[in-house]
């Protein structure tokens, strides 16, 4: 049975896609990509344009101490905790048109449509442009109160200090604490983003209802064997660190491929002495493991430790697993997931539930308030590249889901 | 039954070990090692000392166009092809006291003992000090006629050209062809050397009768996958070049561990892009495989190629095996092996047959004439290091086997 066609307002697709294209001209690269590093000249230009657009649709614009741009469309009940959406407009050194920018511009489009339909919600709607998502995530971390209290940590790769960076965008390191928010003033946060992975496309789904942002643990694995002459050392007398490392890589791949949605990767590797005629004596490599469930990661790591012990014995090597990063999963609020799914049905869009395996400002916002995320497909799963692409039709579909979800949540929260 | 004690002459062990220690003072390093790079000031000093010692025992000394020092103890039949022994006195940048030097000094000691016993053999005995064994092996290659006809190829790492190098040690690039020898003037060549591996020590044998110097093939293996986000790319959709490479390493290890005396090693590896959060898209690694039988290497490579094809299919990657070095094995003459073994028995020394898996000047001499090699144990199998060690007792045992083998071959060849 075909669902009833909604009588709800819909976004202006042409306007949305034109705005995406317009923003992508700032920092445009010859290869079609975009370079808009946080705090750069291009970032500042883009921030100015977004603020101008916010003002054009009569939003109240402010910049907090972390440089986050917060545009507000006031609701009927000014004192009630707001509904927030948003994303970021900074990019990686050679990024595409959609990552971050899409979520911000869809948020503005949603507000503009509400205004055009003279639809004032009960709650205010905030569109937040978070500072430096592709780097330190200092914008959303300031809002969640998780900025590290060490300005040196936030020094830019080019050596610029964080004081001058924040000052340049209207922020202020010394009053960063004032940027902190809570569920007292934000009732829910919904981020719309491109998937940056191939799942929606491969499942032929139009919308992804994000279950949460996976937890991530990173380790440095070291394998100590004995470097020896590759000619004169018989096979039976070797302590070959690279043979052991190869078995470790396959063990990591094995736990990655057990039932579940986890991913496990060895991406980085160094071999010593790294000469064709020397049996390797030392290998160092990275392990990155991600899943929505921290308990599941624990149990996979437990299994891996057993494998590593077996490999060390079998190869006469010493293997160490040293933690170097530990991010807990950030789960999306089930009620928000349901609201998104209901909106997809109303809009007659196909959808699936899936985890986000990349980081987003939403993971910080989950510390502050109820969080949800909407994904649209990324062609071939490509992201952080000039060739990143989501079709105009898909951009419109995602923006409509965002708009409807904000309306839905407003109505639900008022019950 | 205990073998009859030989009445044959024996070397003067104290003198031999004193000479080894004396030579090791030239280029001595603070850590106990020796640095005597070919053509260096230290190499020249050592060459002068060895020539002085040759003259002191009344050998006829000449330097050929490749800078090889050739000391001759004339035999009864001056026109008959000579018996030759020798090795090298240059070292790696941080070498030990024994590699090369031991074989040269044991050769001189053998001649001195023959003279002291007024034992003139039928054939002349030559002791050859080969030029630059640790580098280009130009000395023995000039004797075998296998020098590459391109002076640029022999340029030193420090930029010095081969003309001036050879000139400094009394050689001459332009007349290199005159250094060539044949079985018409060398009837047999026997090199005494430290094993540089752990086999004799682990088998508790005093002498190694070398079966030949292994052939060596070297390849560059490339694995092409697809670099992708380590978070957003599901396990099932990866083309992980490092997972494929791990399976290649284990396949190489597997063929190395099949029955036989081969060794097979992946010693060098590079991963791209080599970042913890990116699925590796490209891996390049070395393969080094060595065995006494070229046919056996062929069949192992055939097996490996089958494995590589299976791995490429299973991992959705492309794997290429590109040859970059091909050295044929150099077999020791069975008659010389038997002569060495008989001498061990006469001297009541334990011995075993084994291949040499490192390169030696003897492999070039095998192109010229019948070749044999005698090994003595290397403590812990260590070589090319300051800690390289062979006990004085073992040095004496090996030198006695060399002396006896020269006498034995002289007598055999006169039959």
CATH class of the largest domain in chain A: Alpha Beta
- The structural domain count of chain A equals 2
Largest sheet of chain A: 9 strands, mixed
The name of the CATH architecture of the largest domain in chain A is: 3-Layer(aba) Sandwich
Q: For the largest interface in this structure, which chains are involved and how many residues does each contribute?
A: A-B, 57 and 56 residues
Which range best describes the helical content of chain A: under 10%, 10-25%, 25-40%, 40-55%, 55-70% or over 70%?
A: 25-40%
CATH superfamily of the largest domain in chain A: Zn peptidases
Specify Rg of chain A, calculated over alpha carbons: 24 Å
Give the oligomeric state of the chains in this entry, treating copies of one chain as homo and distinct chains as hetero: homodimer
Helix-strand pattern of chain A: HHEEEHEHHEHEEEHEEEEHEEHEHEH
Number of helices of chain A: 11
**What is the CATH fold-level name of the largest domain in chain A?**
Aminopeptidase
What does the overall shape of chain A look like? elongated
Overall pLDDT metric of chain A:
95
Structural class designation of chain A: alpha+beta
Spatial separation of the terminal alpha carbons of chain A: 29 Å
Beta-strand residue fraction of chain A:
15-25%
Question: Which terms summarize this structure?
Answer:
five-stranded antiparallel sheet, 415 residues, alpha+beta, disordered N terminus, nine-stranded mixed sheet, 22% strand, Aminopeptidase, 2 domains, homodimer, 11 helices, Alpha-Beta Plaits
């Amino acid at each position: 049975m075909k669902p009833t066609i909604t009588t709800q307002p819909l976004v202006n697709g042409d306007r949305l896609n034109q705005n995406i294209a317009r923003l992508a001209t700032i920092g445009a690269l010859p290869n079609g990509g975009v370079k808009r590093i946080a705090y750069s000249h291009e970032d500042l230009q883009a921030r100015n344009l977004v603020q101008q657009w916010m003002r054009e649709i009569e939003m109240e614009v402010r910049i907090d101490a972390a440089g986050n741009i917060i545009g507000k469309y006031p609701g009927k009940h000014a004192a009630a905790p707001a509904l927030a959406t948003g994303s970021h407009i900074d990019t990686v050194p050679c990024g595409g048109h959609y990552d971050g920018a899409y979520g911000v511009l869809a948020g503005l489009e949603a507000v503009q449509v509400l205004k055009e339909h003279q639809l004032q919600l009960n709650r205010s709607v905030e569109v937040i442009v978070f500072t430096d998502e592709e780097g330190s995530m200092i914008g959303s971390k300031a809002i969640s109160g998780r900025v590290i209290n060490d300005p040196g940590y936030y020094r830019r790769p080019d050596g610029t200090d964080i004081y001058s960076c924040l000052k340049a965008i209207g922020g202020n390191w010394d009053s960063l604490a004032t940027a902190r928010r809570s569920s007292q003033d934000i009732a829910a946060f919904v981020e719309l983003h491109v998937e940056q992975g191939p799942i929606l496309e491969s499942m032929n789904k139009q919308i992804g209802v994000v279950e949460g942002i996976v937890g991530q643990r990173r380790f440095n694995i070291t394998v100590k064997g004995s470097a020896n002459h590759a000619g004169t050392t018989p096979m039976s007398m070797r302590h070959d660190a690279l043979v052991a490392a190869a078995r470790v890589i396959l063990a990591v791949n094995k736990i990655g491929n057990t039932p579940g949605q986890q991913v496990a990767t060895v991406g980085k590797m160094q071999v010593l002495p790294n000469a064709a005629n020397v049996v390797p004596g030392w290998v160092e490599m990275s392990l990155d493991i991600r899943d929505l469930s921290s308990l599941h990661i624990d149990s996979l790591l437990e299994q891996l430790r057993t494998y590593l012990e077996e490999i060390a014995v079998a190869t006469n090597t010493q293997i160490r697993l040293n933690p170097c990063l530990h991010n807990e999963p950030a789960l999306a609020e089930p009620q928000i997931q349901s609201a998104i799914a209901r909106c997809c049905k109303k809009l007659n869009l196909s959808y699936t539930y899936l985890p986000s395996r990349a980081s987003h400002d939403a993971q910080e916002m989950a510390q502050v308030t109820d969080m949800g995320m909407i994904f649209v497909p990324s062609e071939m799963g490509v992201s952080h590249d000039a060739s990143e692409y989501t079709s105009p039709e898909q951009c419109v579909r995602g923006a409509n889901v965002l708009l409807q979800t904000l309306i839905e949540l407003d109505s639900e929260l008022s019950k």
